[in-house]
Amino acid sequence: MPDKYSGETARINMVNNQLLTNKLKDDRIAQALLSVPRENFVPKSLRGVAYLDEDIALSSDRILMEPMAFARILQAAEIASTDIVLDIACATGYSTAVLAQLAATVVGLETDEAAVAVAEEQLAALQIDNAAIVVGDLKAGCEEQGPYDCILINGAVEVLPAAYASQLAEGGRLVIIERKGRSSQAVLYANRDGLVSRRELFDAMAPILSGFQAANSFQF
Fold this sequence. Notes:
This protein is an alpha/beta fold. The chain has one domain (3-216): Vaccinia Virus protein VP39 (Rossmann fold, 3-Layer(aba) Sandwich), CATH 3.40.50.150. The chain has helices at 3-19, 27-35, 67-77, 94-102, 113-125, 163-166, and strands at residues 56-57, 63-64, 84-88, 105-110, 131-135, 148-157, 168-180, 183-192, 195-203. One of its GO terms (molecular function) is protein-L-isoaspartate (D-aspartate) O-methyltransferase activity. One of its GO terms (cellular component) is cytoplasm. This is Protein-L-isoaspartate(D-aspartate) O-methyltransferase. Belongs to the methyltransferase superfamily. L-isoaspartyl/D-aspartyl protein methyltransferase family.
């Protein structure tokens, strides 16, 4: 069978059997995941495992987040069709492509120029015109395109850079995987009336992004 067909079948199985039967309840997210070929954003040697429910290492410091954790993070973010989203450490652009199905505008932020080239190629191939990839310092965010209704980070952090708080719009949400010692959880930060609240969501694991260790941090 051609690769396209096998990829499509694996994608349908991922959504129907891994996600919708578990914690995913949002049909918009299910449709977004069905519309983006996950296998196109990994090296050819890894396409056969692209839909397994585990992180896929794209480089020493970038991952394609496991489908269940990614879907639940999207669900917690409550992304509206009018939202502007910042996708930090977007790597080869899979998360950016999925977010583009949900939001009005998506800015993918990445430092790895080789990954950026892949991301731009894949976004163009999918004819996604409401997303752009920006090369820049992950810890600085992307102030010039903000403020953002939602910020997501592809990877775990020990604590957050100070720049992110000022880039959240009123009502904005930041959803991350936060590592504290042996504990690792998805956490939602929400900006309401200038005050940022924090709520723990569910257990989730991901590698800590370089530069996001505690020594480089700021507590919201």
